[in-house]
Write a structure and sequence with these properties.
With 222 residues, the protein is an alpha+beta fold. It is 27% helix and 27% strand.
Length: 222
């Protein structure tokens, strides 16, 4: 059965849908509650949901805006249900974000940024160009600057942010991350896993990941 994706304004999200999202998260490593999910409707503009046969399989809050004039997809709290089709659901949601991006910013490069607390979530950036951080790459000053810009946009402390590691310490409560566990988690490159070695998800520690969707690559979503 095909995965169906719907995107709408966060203000249109009903209580039953929020409860459904909380139920989806309940059995995972990031059990986002109804209160936290409800708060996201005030902080983000759009919500995408992925369903199979009418049943919720994943969702993502995000906003399309310009950061310093640069088109950006800023992804907030997101969660993918742990099923055998989780990778397909992830691709469906990220494809929808890029489709929305090309509609909002035609013929422009778009930067994508989100937060992770475990390595599998990094798959949300798969297919983008210039992903940071990445193995064997020393981030440039401009790439580190983008990390700081997203930290500020996420409402995190720029003073506590460790820009060379792209990590931000938590405040002893759950962070609003992109929650996903890969079907092939055991095959992730050890050098990528190392980015998360010192993170404590229970404390709310996060890694800021960014990547670029180039205008020529976005054409296929138009």
């Amino acid at each position: 059965m095909a995965i169906e994706v719907e995107t709408k304004d966060c203000t249109m999200l009903g209580d039953a849908e929020i409860e459904e999202m909380a139920d989806l998260c309940a059995d995972g490593p990031n059990p986002f509650g109804i209160g936290l999910i409800s708060k996201q409707t005030e902080e983000w503009v759009l919500i995408s949901t992925a369903r199979e046969g009418g049943r919720l399989k994943g969702f993502a809050f995000f906003t399309l805006e310009r950061i310093g004039g640069t088109p950006a997809v800023i992804v907030g709290l997101a969660s993918i249900h742990r099923t055998s089709k989780r990778d397909t659901v992830l691709r469906a949601l990220t494809t929808e974000q890029l489709r929305r991006a090309v509609m909002a910013f035609p013929d422009e490069d778009v930067v994508v940024g989100t937060r992770f607390n475990e390595v599998s979530g990094f798959e949300a950036l798969k297919g983008l160009t210039g992903i940071v951080p990445r193995p064997g790459h020393k981030a440039s000053g401009e790439e580190r600057a983008w990390g700081r810009r997203f930290v500020k946009r996420f409402g995190l402390s720029t003073l506590a942010y460790q820009e060379k590691r792209f990590t931000s310490p938590g405040k002893s409560f759950p962070a609003c991350v992109f929650d996903h566990t890969s079907l092939k988690a055991d095959k992730v490159d050890a050098s990528v896993v190392a980015f998360f070695d010192d993170l404590d998800p229970t404390a709310g520690d996060v890694l800021i990941g960014t990547g670029w969707a180039l205008a020529e690559d976005l054409e296929k979503y138009a």
